[in-house]
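Record minuted for completeness.

…
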Amino acid sequence: MNENLENQLALALAKALELAEQTGEFALENAPEILRQFFLWHTIDNIIGIFVSLIISFASYKMIVFFGRKEEWDYDELSVVLSSTSGAMGLLFGFILFFYDLAMLIKITVTPELYLIEYFI
């Protein structure tokens, strides 16, 4: 039984090594296309992040403006303070997300090698 287990493990290890070798060969043969797709995906990802951050910022700003009109609505002080605070937090989060995605987009565009090194380290 022990010999059977060793044979199965040896066979599995041989298959894993063969698969790793084939994957390495594929990556080397298609490296330029793989890198192009990698950078394209991360560029699109950061552009989508910028749009999402702008939507969050705009919605948060509108929430602050909407709840800031205390004269028109009969809200108590606590709800106005909480809504304004949550709107300000959303605005801050939107700005942070915007500048982070913008910085990543600039890094991909200007220094793609540096971005690639930082991504995999």
Notes: The mean pLDDT is 85.
